[in-house]
């Protein structure tokens, strides 16, 4: 298993450009999510998905779009990049389980994408 | 509101010293989950432990131990006889039941420097 993969590893954009960060997992996980990591702020949830066709907003969704057409893929789109979106982006996945105590599963994280917006 | 506070921004110790990383959480849910992750200088996130709110037993795994105290809303992490390879940023995280089940809240992290 490759686990959670992310492409690209590094990206530099100019303000106003658009791009898509790719995320894929081969563990048949229902749940996938995107985070951004900024210095001194930990990781913050952008969007998440509990299955194909189902997405929802996290803590910092503005400026980002997502869709989930397959179980394996969960791309993150920046429609018009801004310098405030300079960050390291992590994708994660896990088995959804239920809200029962014993079935909350750990998240597996991808290696991250370092994005700079000039 | 869900919140995780890691008040220690950076800690430096000398190899073989013991070190405790603090984590204080806030949640109104009675069922919740706490996690610790390690982020070494290479940048990946490594899962260390998961606890649920009904399991207050402390846990030990080799040189690592965790102290979960609901009375003080804390989930502290101790490394015994630290080693240079323990140098990393450590994150505490929280998720809970109900509407917050699919949301993960991270603390700001504690950077641990272990000097030889």
What features would you describe in this structure?
The complex is a heterodimer of chains A (118) and B (116). Chain A is 0% helix and 47% strand. Chain B has 116 residues and is an all-beta fold. Chains A and B meet through strand 4, strand 5, strand 9 and strand 10 of A and strand 6, strand 10 and strand 11 of B.
Features:
heterodimer, A: 118 residues, mainly beta, 7-stranded mixed beta sheet, 11 strands, B: 6-stranded mixed beta sheet, 4-stranded antiparallel beta sheet, 0% helix
List the helices and strands and how they pair.
The complex is a heterodimer of chains A (about 120) and B (about 120).
Chain A lengths: L3 E4 L2 E4 L5 E7 L5 E7 L5 E9 L2 E4 L6 E3 L9 E3 L8 E8 L13 E2 L3 E5 L1
Parallel strand pairs in A: 2-11
Antiparallel strand pairs in A: 1-3, 3-8, 4-5, 4-9, 5-6, 7-8, 9-10, 9-11
Chain B lengths: L2 E3 L4 E5 L4 E3 L2 E3 L5 E8 L6 E7 L6 E3 L2 E6 L4 E6 L8 E9 L8 E2 L3 E6 L1
Parallel strand pairs in B: 2-12
Antiparallel strand pairs in B: 1-4, 3-9, 5-6, 5-10, 7-8, 8-9, 10-11, 10-12
> What's the total helix number of chain B?
0
Give the DSSP E fraction of chain A (strand runs of 2 or more residues): over 45%
Q: Biggest sheet of chain B, open or closed, and with what strands and sense? A: 6 strands, mixed
Structure summary, number of beta strands of chain B: 12
Which class do the helix and strand fractions of chain B yield? Answer: mainly beta
Roughly how many Å apart are the termini of chain B? Answer: 41 Å
What integer is the average pLDDT of chain B?
92
How do the helices and strands follow one another from N- to C-terminus of chain A?
EEEEEEEEEEE
Strand percentage of chain B lies at: over 45%
The helicity of chain A comes to under 10%
The largest inter-chain interface, given as chain pair and residues per side, is: A-B, 27 and 28 residues
Spell the H/E element sequence of chain B: EEEEEEEEEEEE
Low-confidence stretches of chain B: none
Silhouette of chain A: globular
What would you call the quaternary organization? heterodimer
Shape of chain B: globular
What integer is the average pLDDT of chain A?
Answer: 91
Helix-residue proportion of chain B? under 10%
Termini of chain A, distance in Å?
A: 36 Å
